[in-house]
Amino acid sequence: MAKAALRVDPWMQSEPSDRWSVGRQAVILGDCLDGMRHLRAASVDVVVTSPPYNIGVAYGSYDDRRPREDYLAWLTEIGTEISRVLTAGGSFFLNVGGINSDPWITMDVAAAFRTTFRLQNHILWAKSLSVGENTVGHFKPINSRRFLNHNHEAVFHFTKTGAVELDRLSVGVPFKDKSNIVRWGHARDRRCAGNVWFIPYRTVRSKAQKFDHPAGFPVELPERCIKLHGIEDAVVLDPFLGAGSTLVAAQRLGCEGIGFEVDRTYAEAALVRLRAEAA
């Protein structure tokens, strides 16, 4: 069955070399605030993104050490624009990491969106777990006698009302005790998996395996967010596209995707990934 034509025209008044499309995925080189202003109001169903954390990550074209007040004010402005383009029943999933030496940054970033959105769910993304003597997943080790290794990040699920219904079973898990299926009147062997998501990083040995981006997230994370929102043929937006994981997820799920990226190298990496997926 053929997919519907694009429902959102994200093209800006810019040079043709600054925008590309792969199937129903649009990659746009440029500042996300400028870009989102060219999108129609209430034209996006799901936003999945991870902005720069302001912790000194070595991005190619962006200074990740801005004054804290300026950085948070910038995020608030971005939140206002995301609210404008998001549908009334849309979901905004914000992935934020942090470092032990700046433990408040994650909550400060979330608070920057507090005046615009309701925090409907706070999800913990676990990248590595140790159970007994066994460890599964990868994390970036630290050399410190003060801090523990940082094995998780936050995913804040924002909505406009705090009352958006989700498809929880789309990312659910089977019951361990099968008697619960009949005993509690469930229609199938599936239950909510909760708000701790174990999505391990794959161990990499080179920058190329990370698509030359220093802080990307695995495709499974935006996939789970899009599925959880539960809208078929959704329009998905990532204002900070990076190397393109969100659009790869949208492509796999048959959704329309729009991504803004200020760094040409990362935008081109996203295109390479999308073309490989489409091949």
Description:
It is a single chain. With 279 residues, the chain is α/β, with parallel strands linked by helices. It has one domain (19-278): Vaccinia Virus protein VP39 (Rossmann fold). Helices cover 24% and strands 23% of the residues. It has seven helices and eleven strands. The protein has helices at residues 32-36, 68-85, 105-111, 179-183, 220-229, 245-252, 264-278; strands at residues 19-22, 25-29, 44-49, 86-96, 118-126, 128-131, 134-137, 152-159, 196-198, 235-238, 256-261. The strands form two sheets. A nine-stranded mixed beta sheet has the order 1-2-11-10-3-4-8-5-9. Strands 6-7 form a two-stranded antiparallel sheet. Strand 1 (19-22) and strand 2 form a beta hairpin. Helix 5 (220-229) crosses helix 6 (245-252) and helix 6 (245-252) runs parallel beside helix 7. The longest helix has 18 residues, at 68-85. It is globular. Mean pLDDT is 88; it is low at 12-16.
Short note summarizing the structure:
The protein has one domain (19-278): Vaccinia Virus protein VP39 (Rossmann fold, 3-Layer(aba) Sandwich).
